[in-house]
Structures are given as C-alpha cells and as structure tokens.
Design goal:
4 strands
Length: 245
Amino acid sequence: MVDPLYQFKIRPLIHLEWGGWDISFTNSSLFMVLATLILIMFFSFSVNARSLIPNRLQMISELLYTFVSDMIQENTGKAGLPYFPYIFSLFLFILMGNMLGMVPYGFTFTSHIIVTFSLAFMAISFITVLGIVRHKWRFLRLFCPENTPVFIIPLLVPIEIMSYLTRSVSLSIRLFANMIAGHAMLKLFAGFAIALAGTAFFPVALASVAMNVAITGFEFLIALLQAYIFTILTCIYLHDALNLH
C-alpha cells in the first residue's frame, strides 16, 4: 500500500543554492505561486468585468469581500477595517492553499508546519508591532488588565505572557494538523479500496469508496473552515492589540 504521507513530501523541482543554503524551487513553492497567480487572475477578471447585473465571477468576489469585511467589523469594529487588505489576503491564500490540495495530483502546502507557522508568526508579529506603536508602554496592559487584584498579578501575568507567546504555535498547529490528517485519511481509504477491489473483500472496497466520497466532501468543508478559523482568530488578536482589554 502506498504511504499515505508520501503526498506531503517536499521535492525540489529546480535545484538552487546560495551562500551554502538550499533555496531550491520545490513543489510547495510551485503551488504557493499557483495559489497567488490564481487569486490575482480571478480578481483581475472579476473586477474588470464589473456590471450592473453581476456575473458569476463578480458575485463570488463580492461575496468573499463582504464575508471578510463583515468578519473584521464583527470582531474588531471599524478600527480594524484599515487592515482589511492584509486579512483578506491571508484568508484567500490559506483557502486557496487548502483547496489546491483537493485537486488530483495537487499539493497542500498548508499541510506543512513551516508554512503555517510562518503565516501565524507574521500575523502575530504584525499585530504585536501594531499594538506597541499604537499604545506604547500601555500595550503591557494586555498582560495585566486594569483593576486586577494585586495578589493575582504574580499568577496572571506569566500565564498571559505564555498564552500570548504560544499564539503562533496554536494557530499553526491547528491548520497544519487538520490538513495533514484529512488528506492522509483520504489516501488511506483510497488505498484500501484499490487493494481490496480484486479480492473476496470487494464489498469492503465499495464501503471504502463510499467513505472516501463522504470524507472528500467533508474535507472541502474543513478547507473552508480552517481558513475561516485562522482568519477569525487573527481578527480577535487584532482586536486585542487595537483595544487592549
């Protein structure tokens, strides 16, 4: 049976080296570029085709725009709207990365923790810098809200700091784990179906195919849901930086 984790292997397509560092262009790099190009082309066509009666592309682009805009306003208020381009780009990039992995012979670059951690680290770093620039030393109130009883401070502050520092880790692991688990399960059930198709266990093979179809539909939902969760948590963290406690 084929290794269900083989689909996540990063393979160099163009070998490159610079200063002793391996900077090869890999299959992961290729699908990141594809995700970016697809999004640019999609919105270029949908925006250029603006009409009084929107076509399908325009309707989808407007729906995505409204969805993310409402998400930001609900979680950060109007103060978060200036950061809409970043949040919108983050949501679409993760969503496209998840969806490309559902295409046959595709590659899910969001199934690698280095990718998800980089996205999470950039988001938390941006939010932290924003909070410090906006509030200066008062940003430390994030770890110790006003009117906190003095006897609780020695316990509360370390917990809050630890929680804040692990935000990047929790964001990245949640996305990475869901993507790799779902796709591995798809490969596993497909392997069962192929291995048992020509044997006396043919009914089991049919059950595996049916299960694979169900999991595939569920994976599309997970792909959208994980992009949404990553983005909405980023919005919540942005709210903390803008308004503190």
